[in-house]
């Protein structure tokens, strides 16, 4: 799978806001007091643990917003697998810019690499099955496009980006609509011809009703592996199947073995641990 780069339009405002938050009203008073304005330096981004890299363009943007004279020479681009001690990039330019932009750059890079690494662990766990690991809308506010990019860097795929690009009928929609049938019929009446409809089901009876009404995908929520196997058999050739609920690296292989098309996981974006990456001298 080709990893297309993020458009700068998606991350430049976020990087600018992060730098403004860090620099405050007086700028980097520590660096400005200690480092001469004319001094230059060359530092290395290095991995301090095993993982997958994501967010280097965002990190570059942070340094170059501080000074356009900063240069970054990549050694391990996004989607690269790294281990402790691996050099990721060399960053050179005005020493003040490197020190001032360091934390903002690393905040983005470590977080996004953590998302990519968490995704990669699940992708590896289901290797050899038809299941694709996908993320959800459980993202850090403001960072959704970046985190979904990081999921792709880790080998996963993206679920819908927002409430406006697909219909997903969940349990509360069904309850308020008065049942799965009126919910689906209302969605069909309002959705455009290019909009897909997915419905969340908790039981095989609900699944049967959804399939009879004709939907594009079914979200099989918190089902046992035995239920998932039955659901996959029922939906085969009729709808895409997506398993969701308490997915871990340990449970993913058995869930994937049921034959589901997708496994959606929220924690890879909202709770993944940052990958430890440092900016070191030499």
Automatic annotation (TrEMBL):
Keywords: Glycosyltransferase, Pyridine nucleotide biosynthesis, Transferase. The keyword Glycosyltransferase applies. It comes from the Bacteria. Pathway: Cofactor biosynthesis; NAD(+) biosynthesis; nicotinate D-ribonucleotide from quinolinate: step 1/1. Residues 28-113 form the Quinolinate phosphoribosyl transferase N-terminal domain. GO terms for molecular function: nicotinate-nucleotide diphosphorylase (carboxylating) activity. Its EC number is 2.4.2.19. It is an enzyme of class 2 (transferase). Pfam families: QRPTase_C, QRPTase_N. Residues 115-280 form the Quinolinate phosphoribosyl transferase C-terminal domain. Belongs to the NadC/ModD family. Involved in the catabolism of quinolinic acid (QA). This is nicotinate-nucleotide diphosphorylase (carboxylating). The lineage of its organism: Bacteria, Pseudomonadati, Pseudomonadota, Alphaproteobacteria, Hyphomicrobiales.
